[in-house]
Amino acid sequence: MTAYILPIDEPEAIYTIRIKRFDPERGAKHYWATYKIPFVKTMTVIEALEYLWDQGEYISFRANCREFTCGSCAMLINGKPCLACNTLLEDNMTLEPLSRYPLIKDLVVDTSAVKDKIKDLKYWPETDDRERDFDVPTEVTEDFHKVYSRCIECYCCLEACPASASEESKFAGPMHILQLARADRHPLDTMDRIKQASGRGIWACISCFECANVCPVELSPGDEVAKFRKKKMLKFLGLGGD
Amino acid sequence: MTSLGKRKTVTRRFIERTLKGEWLGFESHAWAAQRITGFIILGFLIVHLYTLSSITGRKAAFEQVMKSMQGPIIKIGELILLWILFLHSLNGFRLLLVNLMPGINHKKLAYSVAIISLILVFISIPTIL
């Protein structure tokens, strides 16, 4: 853990934050703990957690890049899925772990189920001939720059999506559909991604765009669901769709 | 390891999050409004058909029912029903646009639907009253 770097000699205010904590060694129940943080301008939630570490409060959390690139510090901040490195500290904030996944400790959850789904969905371009030369049209490159390569896989959209909340729901979740759209757009990919997306419940999406509302990099996976739906409809009507 | 909660259906999750005062986007409320207005319209349709079938062929009963429909409460109810019908149909149209035109500004569209439905009701006030 790095040392706390912000100057806190003259804090602007003392903020209170509540953190939902869980320690499997202490028992199976979680509990709420309240902490006082000396707030300085531009202090983020991740910096507040690092400050607590420096004070001897060893709250488990994941963090890596601290510049919303890695997506590891996703948590529920005031009930909303956010990145802790991307959220400025406010008074009376509540921090909780993501609620969809098994809890390991404090703010750390086990997301291996998502990784299993990634393996199942085969996001990577599937091709018969990897040596084949191919031209990448400019619009495809632009799409990758503007949309598909920007997803940081923080799972905020999966947390916010009400349609993939149910075990009975077939909807894979916004991030997975976005990644399928990415594979579909890849010039080398030969898999039928429309069929794959249809089998993953694109019709169960309720178009609430909660995924777009919480995405820290301002992507809109709901639009990718709509694109797949449109392609599927056009294909069904024999009007193209590829 | 323990899980913080069971996975929920869409409706249960929406209600739970609303009751907890959690943050939800406008489109989520539009989805809830679509469901609620759908059930109201279905309820109205059943009542409407039942009322009509019970007075069919009896002129006196028909006129009595029509007279009872002239009260101010019924008129306000008609306006609310009209707003519900506008909201439901425009919201359905919004969903069509969202799916047929991916990339459309869905937030503005959702707000527009709410505002247009209210404007249409206000335009209809002289006709209903």
Q: What is the beta-strand fraction of chain B?
A: under 5%
Most residues in contact: chain pair: A-B, 38 and 31 residues
The average pLDDT of chain B is 86
Distance between the termini of chain B: 63 Å
What is the molecular shape of chain B? elongated
Strand content of chain A: 5-15%
Q: Low-confidence parts of chain B, pLDDT < 50 over ≥5 residues?
A: 1-5
Unreliable stretches of chain A: none
Distance between the termini of chain A: 49 Å
The portion of residues assigned to helices of chain A is 25-40%
Largest sheet of chain B: none
Number of strands of chain B: 1
> DSSP helix count of chain A?
8
User: How many individual β-strands of chain A?
Assistant: 7
Strands of the widest sheet of chain A, in order across it, are: 2-1-5-3-4
Helix and strand element order of chain A = EEHEEEEEHHHHHHH
Helical amount among residues of chain B, as a percent range? over 70%
In terms of quaternary structure, what is this?
heterodimer
Mean pLDDT of chain A: 87
Overall geometry of chain A = elongated
SSE topology sketch:
The complex is a heterodimer of chains A (242) and B (129).
Chain A: E1 13-21, E2 31-39, H1 45-54, E3 74-77, E4 80-83, E5 93-96, E6 102-105, E7 108-109, H2 112-121, H3 138-146, H4 156-160, H5 174-185, H6 193-199, H7 210-214, H8 221-236
Parallel strand pairs in A: 1-5
Antiparallel strand pairs in A: 1-2, 3-4, 3-5, 6-7
Chain B: E1 2-3, H1 10-19, H2 26-55, H3 59-68, H4 72-100, H5 106-128
Question: Can you give keywords for this protein?
Answer:
heterodimer; A: five-stranded mixed sheet; 7 strands; B: 129 residues; 5 helices; elongated
At a glance:
With about 240 residues, chain A is α+β, with helices and mostly antiparallel strands. Chain A has helices spanning about 45-55, 110-120, 140-145, 155-160, 175-185, 195-200, 210-215, 220-235; strands at about 15-20, 30-40, 75, 80-85, 95, 100-105, 110.
